[in-house]
Description:
The protein contains 9 helices and 7 strands. It has a single domain (2-216), classed as Vaccinia Virus protein VP39 (Rossmann fold). Helix 2 (9-16) runs antiparallel to helix 7, helix 6 (116-126) packs across helix 9 and helix 7 packs antiparallel against helix 8. The termini are far apart. The chain has helices spanning 2-5, 9-16, 21-32, 49-55, 68-77, 116-126, 144-165, 173-180, 185-195; strands at residues 39-43, 60-65, 84-88, 101-107, 127-138, 198-205, 210-216. It is globular and about 50 Å long. The chain has a 7-stranded mixed β-sheet with strand order 3-2-1-4-5-7-6, sandwiched between helices. It is α/β, with parallel strands linked by helices. It comes from Amnibacterium flavum. S-adenosyl-L-methionine binds at residues 47, 65, 90-91, 107.
Amino acid sequence: MFDQVSSRxxxxxxxxxxxxDSLWRAATTRAVAPKPGERILDLAAGxxxxxxxxxxxxxxxxxxxxxxxxxEVGRRRHAGNPLLEFVHADALDLPFADDEFDAVTISxxxxxxxxxxxxxxxLFRVTAPGGRIVVxxxxxxxxxxxxxxxxxxxxxxxxxxxxxxxxxxxxxxxxGDSILEWAxxxxxxxxxxxxxxxxxxxxxxxxxVVALHRGHKAARVx
Length: 222
């Protein structure tokens, strides 16, 4: 499905999010707080837009995705950037060594994984001791009024917008249901703790339409 929408994926995201995608990406980058010389995994990176924002700090970023179509667009778009490496990867069986990354992050991808618990366990495995995780994902709006409006948007307005903006509108039909059925903020925080991360916390973006979750892997005791 993602192969089919890769050519217009970023433009469609901007339209469907009413321009908020760039704000969410900036907040995620600040939460990851990349530093020069660090090695960072950006899982479900798509075309690498979020990865490029992380690499601007001087960190080496591995942009990993299951969609070859997305990776192809990303490699073409970011050709010549020595800090970006595009890798085909299955979130349930990451092709990386234990303790490899100073930070791991996934934006709007965990919801699409068949087994998010296993994906979080894999992310924990490849996080270096003392490293950190940031998950940016759609979540539950903070008020009943917003939740009602959000549901109407997902059920009616978004499918109409996708017909005009996407290269394959039917591929977006699943999106609204997947968001409405997704775990709320406290539930996802608990999943991240169960994976092994500590100091897990979250903050809402756009009144809870999106939430940023953060956690740390305990440093190795000397």
